[in-house]
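Hi both,

Apologies for the delay on this - the queue was longer than expected. I finally got the zinc ion-bound model through. Below you'll find the protein sequence and the ligand SMILES exactly as submitted, and right after that the structure tokens for the full complex including the ligand.
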Amino acid sequence: MKNKERHVFLECTECRNRNYTTYKRLRADYKLEKSKFCPFCRKHTAHKEKKL
Ligand SMILES: [Zn+2]
């Protein structure tokens, strides 16, 4: 992990499970939102970042 990056969770917007972790630039002024497969919903859903 580089200095200017940090870990964030990607949280399913439907069931609120934190299914993925990823890296993000420090002080980035955007919110990550990705379509990922959620094993709890058993489909692709929008996942939004949450801090660790
Ligand atoms: Zn889900």
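Main takeaway for now: Residues 12, 14-15, 17, 38, 40-41, 45 surround zinc ion (CB under 6 Å).

I'll put the files on the shared drive as well.

H.
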